[in-house]
């Protein structure tokens, strides 16, 4: 291996004029090599690179197209949702208005029925008062009549004889019987 390296080194000492030899100057040879490699890469790799870029471009365009379609679908769904929301809000407003009118109607019905019940209670109260007054008046009449009858009987008993006394009792009994029939 040492022999191969020595032979390359001995070649580098040869004069370059008119002969073939190796240039061991790294900077100048690298630029040439780099230019050759880039030229080969551009010539042969241009198709591969353009295919890769075209594929990437198509994927990006497809993604953009899909995104646009999704966006349009989302916009349509949003519009449908907004329309549904407006419809639901209108229905809610209608229910609210109907509810308020139902409440007002029920309130008026309740007030009217309460007034009717109060009128009926007032009428029952008045009828009860009249009934109690009439009953009290009848009781007072009966007591007054009974007291008057007792006094009259007392006076008659003290003034009358037995025969007159018996006739008076019979007349009073008949009179009481007819009064009792009238009050029943």
UniProtKB/TrEMBL annotation:
One of its GO terms (cellular component) is proton-transporting ATP synthase complex. The keyword Transport applies. Residues 64-98 form a coiled coil. Keywords: ATP synthesis, CF(0), Chloroplast, Coiled coil, Hydrogen ion transport, Ion transport, Membrane, Plastid, Thylakoid, Transmembrane, Transmembrane helix, Transport. The chain crosses the membrane at residues 31-49. It is a single-pass membrane protein. Pfam families: ATP-synt_B. Its main location: membrane. It is found in: Membrane; Plastid, Chloroplast thylakoid membrane. It comes from the Eukaryota. InterPro entries: ATP_synth_b/b'su_bac/chlpt (IPR002146). One of its GO terms (molecular function) is proton-transporting ATP synthase activity, rotational mechanism. Belongs to the ATPase B chain family. F-type ATPases have 2 components, F(1) - the catalytic core - and F(0) - the membrane proton channel. F(1) has five subunits: alpha(3), beta(3), gamma(1), delta(1), epsilon(1). F(0) has four main subunits: a(1), b(1), b'(1) and c(10-14). The alpha and beta chains form an alternating ring which encloses part of the gamma chain. F(1) is attached to F(0) by a central stalk formed by the gamma and epsilon chains, while a peripheral stalk is formed by the delta, b and b' chains. F(1)F(0) ATP synthase produces ATP from ADP in the presence of a proton or sodium gradient. F-type ATPases consist of two structural domains, F(1) containing the extramembraneous catalytic core and F(0) containing the membrane proton channel, linked together by a central stalk and a peripheral stalk. During catalysis, ATP synthesis in the catalytic domain of F(1) is coupled via a rotary mechanism of the central stalk subunits to proton translocation. Component of the F(0) channel, it forms part of the peripheral stalk, linking F(1) to F(0). This is ATP synthase subunit b, chloroplastic. It comes from Pseudogalium paradoxum.
């Amino acid at each position: 291996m040492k022999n191969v390296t020595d032979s390359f080194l001995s070649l580098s000492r040869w004069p370059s004029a008119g002969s073939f030899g190796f240039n061991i100057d790294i900077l100048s040879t690298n630029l040439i090599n780099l230019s050759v490699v880039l030229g080969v890469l551009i010539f042969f790799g241009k198709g591969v690179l353009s295919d890769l870029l075209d594929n990437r471009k198509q994927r990006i365009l497809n993604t953009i197209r899909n995104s646009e379609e999704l966006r349009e679908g989302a916009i349509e769904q949003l519009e449908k949702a907004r329309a549904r929301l407006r419809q639901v809000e209108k229905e809610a407003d209608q229910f609210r208005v109907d509810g308020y009118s139902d409440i007002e109607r029920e309130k008026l019905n309740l007030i009217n029925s309460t007034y009717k019940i109060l009128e009926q209670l007032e009428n029952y109260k008045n009828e009860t008062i009249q009934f109690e007054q009439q009953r009290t008046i009848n009781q007072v009449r009966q007591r007054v009549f009974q007291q008057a009858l007792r006094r009259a009987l007392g006076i008659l008993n003290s003034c009358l004889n037995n025969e007159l006394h018996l006739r008076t009792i019979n007349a009073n009994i008949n009179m009481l019987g007819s009064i009792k029939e009238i009050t029943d």
